[in-house]
Design brief:
Elements: H1 3-16, E1 20-25, H2 28-31, H3 35-48, E2 55-60, E3 72-75, E4 79-82, H4 86-96, E5 104-105, H5 111-114, H6 132-137, H7 142-150, H8 153-163, H9 175-184, E6 191-196, H10 205-212, H11 214-228, E7 232-238, H12 242-257, E8 273-279, H13 288-295, E9 319-323, H14 324-328, H15 330-336, H16 338-342, E10 352-359, E11 365-370, H17 375-382, E12 392-397, E13 403-406, H18 416-421, E14 430-435, H19 440-454, H20 460-477, H21 483-499, H22 503-507, H23 510-518, H24 520-526, H25 529-534
Parallel strand pairs: 1-2, 6-7, 6-9, 7-8, 10-14
Antiparallel strand pairs: 1-3, 3-4, 4-5, 10-11, 12-13, 12-14
Helix pairs in contact: 3-4, 7-11, 8-9, 8-11, 10-12, 19-20, 19-23, 20-21
């Protein structure tokens, strides 16, 4: 496809737009609450009133405020309905016809929406993710055309490097440096991989982006392929995301049909093909070396580094691995310039970050905010604090690899370095809020159970250590633990952290260490005083 064809599609779509657009959220959350039926009910009401020439009913992706879903938006009026049901959906059309709407009207000016800065999620909730024409009308693939036709690969890498973008998968490694390493690595072939194996409890950022704007990710991957010299890409998505998988399959097929993926893109010598790989639900496959093993058809287990994937990845060839959100940032950076992106965020952490805000908080859902915003602003302003008059106690960031941050540290800016200083990490973007009724020892045990069950078993510290830590935590929660058990728990945390093979084991103790650091009194209160006084104790010997 040439530039003129893209422009023609854009103009055709603009002419086809109607006076009013009713946007129906059909991301996974709203779909699970009868979102498809809601859209059908609204379409039926539009048809019955003969308003087809005035009103467009559009399927869209995530509109953000998932806890208030299913959601329906009205443009250009800027109305936002929440908790819509198939039974009251038709009343929304009645309201547009001069009658009254029974559906609950939300506030689009609420801090949950007004405090956000949308870059990755700019099209989410606005375009139909299953129509490439919607994406093209919103500017999709124009940046790829510009890159392929007018820029050298080195210029693209320089732009990404200058932007200060860091990997959004958790480690925060400078994206431009990684791209530059792959580009310079010798090899007869190179690969691009998108890590969509999101598995942290409470995390749904990547899923929402893939469900809502898959072409943004595909375009970012294609630009990456051009920059590093790769002609083949893989998107690795967990099987628990069937809607994301389906929409990715549709997007890839449509992009190929229009010549935006495949051979001779934009009548150039650049070839780029994308294949989908479905993960079987192993959390450890989020680790890049385990992910590559799974793509190659082997058991998903990590292996020591070096060599790093940038030098020796898939089948021994240089491989670029970034996560969904990282690729989704590429088009805006190239389109608006690295200086624009670098103006957002903090000195060392640029841009915005997408978070899934969940747990004991009034307004939960998907948010995108400038890096550097404080935890308090996210939890209290956007999230509205804890429901039912309760007080917020802590927030857990970074999933099983992160830590629990108490409310007294909520004025800390959310950036890579600051969160590490508190004993947590930004991670991929999961943020779970706890209130005053939450038992923090039980929270630590929950995450330890997750890590124990997801350990691949390759290294002994992780395989055996997580089991022993889980059993010690269970003993303490059940008020059977002693000070000796607490001491042994801390010793195990240190051992597993420093001797495990991969990130899963190395970070598994973090929820325990952070709760011991900030909520040690809760551990002490649960210790068995009678056993402690009798001097008996210790854990039973574990078989490994």
């Amino acid at each position: 496809m040439v530039l003129e064809q893209l422009i023609a599609i854009t103009e055709k779509e603009k002419k086809a737009r109607k006076e009013i657009c009713i946007r129906c959220c059909m991301a996974a959350g709203c779909m699970s609450s009868r979102g498809a039926e809601i859209k059908e009910s609204i379409e039926k009401a539009v048809s019955e009133k003969g308003l087809q020439n005035r009103i467009e009913v559009r399927r869209v992706g995530c509109m953000g405020s998932c806890g208030q879903g299913p959601m329906v938006g009205i443009e250009p009026a800027g109305l936002l309905y929440q908790h819509v049901t198939p039974e009251n959906a038709a009343s929304i059309v009645e309201g547009l016809s001069g009658g009254s709407a029974e559906a609950e009207l939300g506030d689009p000016k609420h801090p949950f929406f007004s405090r956000q800065k949308l870059i990755v999620c700019a099209n989410s909730g606005r375009i139909d993710p299953e129509r490439i024409e919607d994406s093209i009308e919103a500017g999709g693939y124009l940046t790829l055309q510009h890159v392929v036709s007018e820029l050298q690969p080195s210029q693209v890498i320089d732009a990404v490097l200058k932007s200060g973008l860091r990997g959004r998968g958790g480690a925060g490694y400078p994206t431009g440096l990684k791209w530059g390493t792959v580009a310079k690595s010798p090899g007869t072939r190179k690969f691009v991989v998108c890590n969509g194996d999101e598995g942290d409890p409470g995390a749904f950022m990547d899923r929402s982006v893939l469900e809502s704007d898959p072409h943004r990710v595909l375009e970012g991957m294609a630009i990456a392929g051009y920059a590093v010299g790769a002609d083949q890409a893989f998107i690795y998505v967990r099987a628990e995301y069937p809607l994301a998988v389906s929409r990715l399959q549709t997007a890839i097929r449509q992009a190929k049909h229009h010549g935006l993926l495949g051979n001779g893109i934009f009548e150039s010598t650049f070839n780029f093909n994308v294949e989908l790989r479905i993960g079987a639900g192993a959390f450890v496959c989020g680790e890049e070396t385990a992910l590559m093993a799974s793509i190659e058809g082997r058991r998903g287990q990590p292996h020591p580094r070096p060599p790093f994937p940038a030098e020796s990845g898939l089948w021994g060839f240089p491989t670029l691995i970034n996560n969904v959100e990282t690729y989704a940032n590429i088009v805006p950076i190239v389109k608006k310039g690295p200086d624009w992106f670098a103006s957002l965020g903090t000195e060392k952490s640029k841009g915005t970050k997408v978070f899934s805000l969940t747990g004991k908080v009034r307004n939960n859902g998907l948010i995108e905010v400038p890096i550097g915003i404080t935890i308090r602003e996210i939890v209290e302003d956007l999230g509205g604090g804890a429901p039912d008059g309760a007080k917020v106690k802590a927030v857990q960031t970074g999933g099983p690899s992160g830590g629990c941050i108490p409310v007294e540290h909520f004025d800390t800016p959310v950036d890579y370095e600051s969160l590490v200083g508190l004993g947590s990490i930004m991670g991929s973007g999961g943020m779970v809020v706890m209130d005053e009724h939450t038992n923090m020892v039980d929270v630590a045990r929950f995450y330890m159970q997750f890590c124990m069950e997801e350990s691949c078993g390759k290294c002994i510290p992780c395989r055996a250590g997580t089991v022993q830590m889980y059993e010690l935590l269970t003993k303490i929660v059940e008020r059977r633990g002693t000070r000796n058990d607490l001491e042994q728990l801390e010793e195990l945390c240190d051992l597993v952290k420093h001797t495990s093979l991969c990130g899963l084991g190395q970070t598994a103790p973090n929820p325990v260490l952070s709760t011991l650091r900030y909520f040690r009194n809760e551990y002490l209160e649960l210790l068995n005083k009678e056993v402690q006084e009798s001097g008996s104790s210790g854990v039973q010997e574990q078989k490994t």
